[in-house]
Automatic annotation (TrEMBL):
Transmembrane feature ranges: none
InterPro entries the record matches: DEAD/DEAH_box_helicase_dom, Helicase_ATP-bd, Helicase_C-like, P-loop_NTPase
SUPFAM superfamilies according to UniProt: P-loop containing nucleoside triphosphate hydrolases
Pfam family, one: DEAD
Domain called Helicase C-terminal: residue spans: 374-527
A cellular component annotation (GO) from this entry: chromosome
GO BP annotations, alphabetical order: double-strand break repair via homologous recombination
Classification via PROSITE patterns: HELICASE_ATP_BIND_1, HELICASE_CTER
Species annotation: Acutalibacter muris
Official protein name in the record: ATP-dependent DNA helicase RecQ
């Protein structure tokens, strides 16, 4: 049943709420084309309406909450017939929302668009769920036996996803691989196939409990063997924890989703993973949503950065056995540098970069001349712009004030999510948001990380983010279902008010980097703290140590922020070559008053003479500190220029400047209202991964057949197109010979299942140039095209000679592959063998 049918059945009482939602959720499964994506979006609107009705009956939502929801429902689905009770509510409260009560319980809506937002077409596009010509769905790429065996999928979402998966599977021990795939590009499949295809344990580090659970459930659903998958988090039963610990001790767990805090703050889990690293049971460490790590150091949870110390120790104790994977979407250069500094492996870092700017957002900008105007315009946007909607503000205080104002207007069902929100409330809001319990969430930057809600239609910034990266990441939480979304940027600007949003953003940037004087004072504070243990050039430092500039009262109540600053100082000293980081441990000191929670960090002094002298250290840190501050200022300056001159340059070009590996995209902004459609490459691998793999040793039989040659022909007695059955036989024999890659014509790609990477001709032509390491285990190539195709195929195979990779050609010996009519038998150095011998 489609969304309108289910809605009608629910309204007339023929379907209960749970049955109606279950029926609608069937429409969310298949999103293979835009018509199905649009129906999925409509179904989500109806699910949200049903949930709002249930909440209204329970008095969890107000009359205005239900009218706010009905307005969007009608603008997406058209006129609706309501129950008598809802019709009465709309009759009393609906005028404010442009709802019109008609005969026979029918309700329509006048589409009022705020006059201060131009062009109006953006909003109309979003309500119409319009399919843009410039937005393309990924082209699926043929699957393989690895995918089919471990999951229920028979094709990759894209060629880029296939390359990412096989690059990860073939990554040498001790290496770090950064993978960026666009939102919705299927990063989680990399993690799932890594765990299911590797011996030992894969630990997946995620930033939020909600994301950990999302990925845990997705892995259970996708993987055929889901019994060895676990999720360790703070709020779970003792029975679950005991089960996880036992599986890890018995080395039966294959995949563990968890957070840095869970590892660092649970001594038993910490100890087990330490031992797993030493025994080579711990094989892979995956850091998901890796782009959040640099931003979370000072202001929000230093645990991610502390975890980098732990991972460094594991790598050392595993003797370079552990592989590290950093997963993210679009990345700026400074974030890449930071990630490799934290989690990289010297000389062993590689990247699979498929960065892409979001194609869905249309950008509105309105400069508020007062705080009151900013709040008023935000409230008007909440009422009149498409939902679901996230409203971002700068500080928790502002979020609560806006919520209070909305409650005065009669809204009851709009939650606040900030860094001050308790863990229990966080989980409730995140779960409710995903389940369509809220139309609007008011939040600070703490909200949204890793929350895969596909149908967010509007992102409002009633503030000025401190850098362009944060702004773009938050805008990117809209339109994940590939349908249009809106970004509304409403900064408060004043030439005379020091509280203007741009100046407040500068304050945030300034707080990110310690001044040299404060760095030296903090270093002395940790080194001279009574809890510090110093043994020659090794020290164990207490990160709760307070600087001498704090009063006794301030020091007594110094908490997480103080710890975060000390952690960041140690990481800065490590980056600049003054110390090495050896270990980190969490301490919960219940005896102190108030109780203290902090880390002890074991370090090695690399330049003790400088570190022991204040003047020398001040002089040595001045230039590195200036560089780091300047790096922070780059994103701020771009943001500041965007606010001061929003029409100076197409915003797509501005974003392209920040994310240089992406292609320019704009579907409408203040500088370019009509937007622009820019074509992209067929394959979107932005840089060649710098991976070099030696030629894999051949299977014994293959070695005997090929001898010292790198090329061999398997003689095909016939000519013309190969049959599926014929190629399937070759594929099975290639697998028995441990050959890693199999190349077939496009018409056969979906018919053949191969236990390695399966490529059609076009994919092969690309991969042999940009990802030659994929052929380190050899390649079998099926020739059955015309002379031009065979010529191109053989020419591209020749590019593997530079690496010494083995090439096996299945073809008729008289196939012409060179100018002058030369046959493959004349041209090739390898021996031809019959298929039986292969």
């Amino acid at each position: 049943m489609d969304s309108k049918e289910v809605l009608q059945q629910y309204i007339v009482g023929a379907m209960k709420s749970q049955s109606a939602i279950a029926e609608l959720e069937k429409n969310l499964v298949d999103t293979s084309d835009f018509l199905k994506i649009q129906e999925a979006a409509r179904s989500r609107y109806v699910i949200g309406f049903i949930r709002r009705v249930v909440q209204f009956k329970r008095e969890e939502a107000s009359a205005k909450d239900i009218c706010l929801n009905i307005r969007d429902l009608i603008l997406v689905l058209g006129r609706v017939k309501l129950t008598e009770k809802l019709y009465t509510v709309v009759k009393e409260y609906g005028t404010e929302f442009d709802l019109v009560c008609e005969n026979d319980l029918q309700v329509s809506c006048l589409h009022h668009i705020p006059e201060w937002l131009e062009p109006h077409q953006y909003i109309k596009d979003v309500y119409a769920l319009r399919h843009d010509d410039g937005i393309e769905l990924e082209t699926e790429s043929s699957g393989d036996a690895i995918l089919a065996t471990h999951t229920g999928f028979n094709a990759y979402k894209s060629f880029e996803q296939k390359v990412a998966v096989h690059t990860a599977l073939n990554l040498p021990n001790g290496h770090t691989l950064l993978i960026s795939l666009p939102t919705g590009g299927g990063k989680s499949l990399v993690t799932q196939l890594l765990a299911s295809s590797s011996d030992g344990l894969t630990v997946v580090i995620v930033p939020t409990v909600a994301l950990a659970l999302d990925q845990y459930y997705a892995a259970q659903q996708n993987l055929t063997n889901a019994t060895e998958i676990y999720c360790y988090r703070g709020e779970q039963s003792e029975i679950e924890r005991v089960e996880i610990i036992k599986a890890l001790k018995d080395k039966k767990a294959r995949m563990l989703f968890t957070s840095p805090e869970a590892i660092l703050k649970n001594s038993e889990l910490h100890r087990i993973l330490d031992n797993a690293a030493k025994s080579h049971y711990l094989t892979n460490v995956v850091v998901d949503e890796a782009h959040v790590v640099p931003d979370w150091g000072v202001f929000f949870r230093p645990d991610f950065q502390i975890f980098s110390i732990l991972l460094k120790k594991w790598k050392y104790e595993s003797e370079g056995f552990i592989r590290t994977f950093l997963l993210s979407a679009t990345l700026s250069d400074d974030v890449v540098d930071t990630l490799f500094a934290l989690f990289g492996s010297d000389g062993k870092n590689a990247q699979v970069r498929c960065d892409a700017l979001r194609q869905e957002p249309r950008f509105y900008f309105h400069s508020a001349k007062s705080r009151k105007e900013q709040v008023d315009k935000t409230i008007e946007a909440i009422k009149l712009l498409p939902k679901p909607m996230v409203v971002y503000v700068l500080e928790p205080r502002e979020a609560k004030e806006l919520q209070k104002k909305l409650r005065e207007f009669g809204y009851k069902n709009i939650p606040v999510f900030t860094g001050e929100t308790t863990e229990t409330d966080r989980n409730t809001i995140l779960t409710g948001w995903k389940n369509h319990d809220f139309d609007v969430v008011i939040a600070t930057s703490a909200f949204g990380i890793g929350v895969d809600k596909p149908d967010v239609r509007t992102i409002v910034h009633a503030c000025c983010p401190e850098n362009l990266s944060r702004f773009y990441q938050e805008v990117g939480r809209g339109g994940r279902d590939r349908l249009p979304s809106l970004s509304l940027f409403i900064p408060y600007q004043s030439r005379y008010d020091s509280d203007g949003d741009v100046r407040r953003a500068l304050g945030l940037v300034s707080k990110r980097v310690l001044t040299v004087d404060r760095a030296v004072i903090r270093w002395k504070g940790m080194l001279s703290n009574p809890a510090a243990m110093i043994d020659s050039d090794e020290c164990v430092l207490n990160t709760s140590a307070t600087p001498s500039t704090m009063t006794v009262e301030e020091a007594e109540y110094a908490g997480n922020r103080n710890v975060a600053w000390n952690v960041n100082l140690l990481l800065f000293l490590h980056r600049t070559g003054f110390i090495d980081l050896l270990d980190a441990n969490y301490v919960f000191d219940k005896k102190s008053n108030p109780p203290k929670k902090y880390y002890t960090v074991t370090i090695k002094l690399l330049q003790p003479d400088i570190l022991s002298d204040d003047d020398s250290l001040t002089a040595a840190l001045t230039e590195p500190r200036a560089r780091e501050y300047e790096a922070q200022m780059v994103g701020y300056r771009i943001m500041s220029e965007l606010v001061s001159s929003p029409k100076a340059l197409c915003w797509g070009r501005v974003f392209r400047h920040l994310f240089p590996l992406s292609r320019e995209v704009c579907n409408g902004c203040p500088a370019d209202p009509e937007g622009r459609i820019t074509s992209d490459d067929t394959y979107k691998l932005r840089t060649d991964p710098e991976i070099k793999l030696p030629t894999a040793p051949p299977a014994p039989r293959l070695g005997r057949n090929m001898g010292s040659f790198n090329e061999m022909i398997i003689s095909r007695p016939s000519t013309g197109p190969c049959s599926t059955e014929e190629v399937a036989v070759i594929a099975e024999k290639a697998y028995q010979n441990n050959i890693g890659a199999f190349v077939v014509p496009s018409r056969l790609a979906d018919e053949i299942v191969y236990n390695g990477i399966l490529l059609n001709y076009e994919e092969f032509y690309y991969a042999v140039v940009h990802c030659p390491y994929l052929f380190a285990k050899g390649v079998v190539c099926i020739f059955d095209g015309d002379t031009a195709t065979n010529f191109t195929l053989y020419k591209n195979l020749g590019k593997l000679d530079a690496f010494g990779y083995r090439k096996i050609l299945y073809c008729n010996e008289n196939t012409i592959v060179a100018n002058g009519g030369k046959t493959i038998r004349e041209y090739s150095d390898g021996y031809p063998i019959p298929i039986q011998k292969f």
